[in-house]
């Protein structure tokens, strides 16, 4: 009897089963409110001209709102069929079970919202907005902050590298020192004195420790130096004595970060990749403005990547600006 109260007594057949509109649902709730007033013994307030002690449109609106509120409360307590009409299947008339269902659904919704926010933050952290100007228009796109891939053998250089001139001019940005050497001696062998000078230039910036670098790096530098018209090569980083990151090729004295004034990182990166005969790691850092070149561990395959993350100095400056903003006035 309770389940059929809303279906057969209150709701007109033209509304039930076809999806209730707002007007039809409000009429049903008004009728239910009048039934509730009759049951409780309170005075029955009709609609329109039958309003008691109230006249005009404001009075009709007040009475309609009152009857809707009473009808809704009565339906929620007495008629489980009303839950299915308004899309709340599974709820029972008992207040305890209803509160449990509402709590569980709200907790599930909150959990899903938190997960969505976390995933969005992670995606934003892994992506960076890159803008380029093409034909006078600035075009921007979101790219992955780090994008790496392995290199197949078909993409490697098959011909052996030609012997470079051996001439080389390198400027260390961190030490503001410049070295001009010739890698080869009169017999065509590597000059130990030139290698020692370059090793001193490639020393660790933090500990000032010097280690013998992989001489293949110097030969690659000489090839780059010859290709770009003997322009001075700027060294960003060479050997790093970082015991907390022993997997870095900088720690093993077989990596360098370089740039050439007047040459874009894309152009430099493209040329260096053409020199890889196998076992090299080459990375492009467009934001920091340099190209990473290293020789992998024995047996390791070549690797390429692009990293849009800022340099360490840029991160420090950003953190300093943030600390100054949040610092209280003393």
Question: Gap between N and C termini, in Å?
Answer: 74 Å
Order of secondary-structure elements: HHHHHEEEEEHHEEHEEEH
CATH topology of the largest domain: Muramoyl-pentapeptide Carboxypeptidase, domain 2
Structural class: alpha+beta
The average pLDDT is 76
CATH architecture classification of the largest domain? 2-Layer Sandwich
Q: Care to count the β-strands?
A: 10
Low-confidence stretches are 1-10, 16-20, 44-55, 88-95, 324-330
User: Can you tell me the number of structural domains?
Assistant: 2
Portion in helices: 40-55%
- Radius of gyration, rounded? 38 Å
What is the C-level CATH assignment of the largest domain? Alpha Beta
Largest sheet: 8 strands, mixed
Instruction: Identify the strand order in the major beta sheet.
Output: 3-10-8-9-7-6-4-5
Give me the secondary-structure topology.
Blueprint: H1 5-10, H2 22-40, H3 56-78, H4 81-85, H5 95-126, E1 127-134, E2 137-144, E3 146-150, E4 167-172, E5 177-182, H6 192-201, H7 215-227, E6 233-237, E7 255-259, H8 265-273, E8 280-285, E9 290-295, E10 303-307, H9 312-326
Helix pairs in contact: 2-3
């Amino acid at each position: 009897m309770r389940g059929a109260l809303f279906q057969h007594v209150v709701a007109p057949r033209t509304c039930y089963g076809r999806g209730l509109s707002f007007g039809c649902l409000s009429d049903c709730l008004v009728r239910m409110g009048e039934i509730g007033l009759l049951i409780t013994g309170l005075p029955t307030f009709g609609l329109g001209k039958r309003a008691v002690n109230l006249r005009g449109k404001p009075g009709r609106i007040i009475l309609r709102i009152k009857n809707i509120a009473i009808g809704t409360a009565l339906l929620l307590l007495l008629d489980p069929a009303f839950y299915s009409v308004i899309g709340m299947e599974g709820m029972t008339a008992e207040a305890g079970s209803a509160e449990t269902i509402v709590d569980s659904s709200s907790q599930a919704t909150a959990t899903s919202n938190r997960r969505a926010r976390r995933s969005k933050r992670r995606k934003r952290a892994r992506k960076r907005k890159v803008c380029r100007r093409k034909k006078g228009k600035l075009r921007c796109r979101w790219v992955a902050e780090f994008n790496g891939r392995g290199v197949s053998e078909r993409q490697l250089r098959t011909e052996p590298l030609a012997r470079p001139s051996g001439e080389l001019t390198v400027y260390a940005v961190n030490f503001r020192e410049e070295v001009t050497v010739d890698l080869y001696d009169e017999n065509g062998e590597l000059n130990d004195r030139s290698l020692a000078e370059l090793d001193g230039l490639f020393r660790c910036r933090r500990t000032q420790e010097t280690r013998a670098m992989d001489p293949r790096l110097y030969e690659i530098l000489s090839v780059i130096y010859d290709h770009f018209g003997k322009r001075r090569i700027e060294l960003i980083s060479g050997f790093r004595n970082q015991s907390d990151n022993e997997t870095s090729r900088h720690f093993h004295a077989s990596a360098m970060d370089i740039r050439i004034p007047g040459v874009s990182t894309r152009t430099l990166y493209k040329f260096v990749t053409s020199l890889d005969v196998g076992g090299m790691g080459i990375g492009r850092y467009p934001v920091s403005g340099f190209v990473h070149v290293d020789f992998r561990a024995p047996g390791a395959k070549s690797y390429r990547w692009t990293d849009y993350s800022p340099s360490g100095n840029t991160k420090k400056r950003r953190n300093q600006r943030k600390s100054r903003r949040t610092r209280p006035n003393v």
